[in-house]
Amino acid sequence: MLLLGAHLSIAGGVSQAFARADDLGCTAMQIFTKNASQWRSKPLPTSEIEAFASAWDKSQVTSVTAHDSYLINLASAEGDKRSRSLAAFIDEMERCAILGIPGLVMHPGAHLGTGEDVGLQRIAEAMRSIFAEAPPSVRVLLENTAGQGSYLGHRFEHLAEIMERVPEGRFGVCFDTCHTLAAGYDLTSAEGYRATMSEFDRLVGTEHIAAFHLNDSLKERGSRVDRHAQIGQGAVSLEVFAALMADERFAEVPKLLETAPGENNCFHLASLSLLRQMAEKQA
């Protein structure tokens, strides 16, 4: 089955996302499990946990992924921000476990001027602490970033180093097409896609990719600016999306839009239709 969908709203409760997914014909979706602009939220009520399970059982969605809050920065120095980030991330993993969501996407963190080596070491230390406490049923999906500001994860080497420094970790990778291009990798042609994936495979291993964010990039290659665009309206070539949809290595990996849905979901419907057509051409 083609696992294709989008990041969807949880307005009204996490269980409500399934109805939105079904309206779009999604077989996969990504959600926040709480208000992403708050450090912590009230525990999920038993009624909502049960409603989520029931809605999932009835939905055509088979793959659910969560994304953590953007407030969290595991590359922070010792202090209040780091303590809150650690507690918040463990809380997010616990919420995923309660809902039966197997993967939590996260941006590795920003070093805030201390340098890449220090930042990566802090992330690794945080991860060792997190995995010692967090539920074993949830895998952390490290997302490659655009490299905006001091964000780490814009080089494939960063992801590999985090995973190598925490061998006990339960890691996967979320591969974002917009971030990849913005970070400087070539996603301007099918040939560029193949070269980029070859480099990722050499450094990290394509077998670790557990989710894709299918986003076009408003800014040009190497801009280090994280600005998503609708598919076909940015700097990522349509050849790249077609090659990815045809790549048998990722046939069972969920592929998710993170772009604006548009009025009455017009943008999502158009993008999902285009991606399905690409997949069908290669079937």
Describe the structure in your own words.
- With 283 residues, the chain is an alpha/beta fold.
- The chain has one domain: TIM Barrel (Alpha-Beta Barrel).
- It is 41% helix and 16% strand.
- The strands form three sheets. It has an eight-stranded parallel beta barrel. It has a two-stranded antiparallel ribbon with strand order 5-7. It has a two-stranded antiparallel sheet with strand order 10-11.
- Strand 2 (28-31), helix 2 (46-58) and strand 3 (63-67) form a beta-alpha-beta unit.
- Helix 4 packs across helix 5, helix 7 crosses helix 8 (238-246) and helix 8 packs across helix 9.
- The protein is globular, with a radius of gyration of 18 Å.
- The model has no long low-confidence stretch (mean pLDDT 97).
Q: Could you list some keywords that capture this structure?
A:
alpha/beta; single chain; eight-stranded parallel β-barrel; globular; 9 helices; TIM Barrel; two-stranded antiparallel ribbon; 283 residues
CATH class: Alpha Beta
> Major sheet, described briefly?
8 strands, parallel, barrel
CATH architecture, by name, is Alpha-Beta Barrel
CATH homologous superfamily title: Divalent-metal-dependent TIM barrel enzymes
The CATH topology: TIM Barrel
Proportion of strand residues: 15-25%
SSE series? EHEHEHEEHEEHEHHEEEHEH
Low-confidence spans: none
User: What is the total tally of β strands?
Assistant: 12
Number of domains: 1
Strand order of the largest sheet: 1-2-3-4-6-8-9-12
Radius of gyration: 18 Å
* Envelope shape: globular
Total helical elements: 9
Roughly what percent helix? 40-55%
Mean pLDDT: 97
What class, by secondary structure content?
alpha/beta
What is the terminal separation in angstroms?
Answer: 11 Å
